[in-house]
Design goal:
This is Phage major capsid protein. The strands form two sheets. The protein has a seven-stranded mixed sheet with strand order 3-12-8-4-7-6-5, with helices on both faces. Strands 1, 2, 9, 10 and 11 form a five-stranded antiparallel sheet that branches. By secondary structure, the protein is α+β, with helices and mostly antiparallel strands.
């Protein structure tokens, strides 16, 4: 497949794809928004890769006085607590030999389509976005710089951060995976550790998709729940736990554990403003390769350790 055929037949242009020029931020945003968990979080943007930023968490309390003519403070209650987000660069670069795909590209077309109708770069980038989103959600929870392997060794996720400061959490324990006979009792034991703020403002329980499905089935079997209350979004289950201000969400980021936190506690950082973030698909005529390059930044943190329950 020569350069002319690459360009004219299959829309693989040596100059790069105009469809993605200047749209790196949009495509990177789609990666984050394609993760159900990350899509529900307001990101801290403008953080350059391999740098950090501090979340200054404002908190205060109330101390009253019943005295007359109060001219001094009644309490020293306001505090700014720093929480650091460390952001790393994540690069997904692939060099695809055209000798391996030139006979297969036409199979992506719908029946009756002409070769020039094919938009291979869109199909590739859409698939890359979906795969990056799933991997990013796993990194957000399971990332462990010192103990992880492969993609999971690139950044610390919420579970690692929680375990490293377990004494500061609302509750931390090691339990292991639940089974169908114990899962309701195990979740109820975690609920018993919820803080007053979690009950008042609402909290979310994150578990693996398999554990959430098991919990849902167990609740139905115990006549505590109806399947009609389950929402399934892109293969991920969620529902309101019966009788309590707690949302249960299944995520590919969790394995056997249970992670509960007050709503709006989770945070992540990214860039979206820098030209260091890029999305490119182009043909390298010298090496006869199709180059797919997606580069973005990500890092994870939560605001209040005292509003986190982690049962490992």
């Amino acid at each position: 497949m020569n350069e002319k055929n690459v360009k004219l037949k299959f829309n693989l242009d040596v100059s790069g794809y105009a469809d993605f020029e200047g749209r790196a931020g949009e495509v990177v945003s789609n990666i984050f928004s394609s993760s159900r968990v990350l899509a529900s979080i307001i990101p801290q943007t403008g953080i350059k890769a391999n740098t950090s930023t501090t979340l200054n968490i404002l908190d205060t309390d109330v101390t009253w006085s019943s005295a007359d003519c109060v001219s001094t403070e009644t309490g020293d209650n306001t505090d700014l607590t720093p929480r650091v987000i460390n952001v790393v660069r994540l690069s997904d670069r692939e060099l695809i030999c055209l000798d391996k795909i030139d006979a297969k590209i036409p199979q992506l077309q719908s029946a009756g389509a002409k070769n020039e109708d094919l938009s291979f770069e869109n199909a590739l980038v859409e698939l890359k976005v979906a795969k990056n989103a799933k991997a990013l959600e796993k990194l957000a929870f399971q990332g462990n710089i010192t103990g992880g392997t492969g993609n999971l060794a690139l950044a610390d996720g919420w579970l690692t951060i929680a375990e490293n400061e377990s004494a500061d959490l609302a509750y931390f324990a090691t339990s292991g995976a639940s089974n169908a006979g114990t899962i309701i009792a195990d979740v109820d034991a975690a609920i018993a550790e919820m803080t007053d703020e979690m009950h008042e403002y609402g909290a979310t329980l994150y578990m693996s998709n398999a554990q959430v499905a098991m919990l849902s089935a167990a609740l139905v079997k115990a006549n505590l729940f109806n399947f009609a209350n389950v929402t399934i979004d892109n293969g991920m289950m969620s529902f309101q736990y019966p009788g309590i201000n707690l949302t249960v969400i299944g995520t590919s980021g969790m394995n056997s554990g249970k992670f509960i936190t007050i709503n709006d506690n989770l945070s992540y950082g990214t860039d979206l403003d820098s030209d260091k973030e890029s999305v490119e698909v182009f043909y390298d005529k010298y090496h006869k390769e199709l180059v797919s390059d997606i580069v973005f930044a990500a890092g994870f943190q939560y605001k209040f350790p005292s509003q986190v329950i982690y049962i490992k």
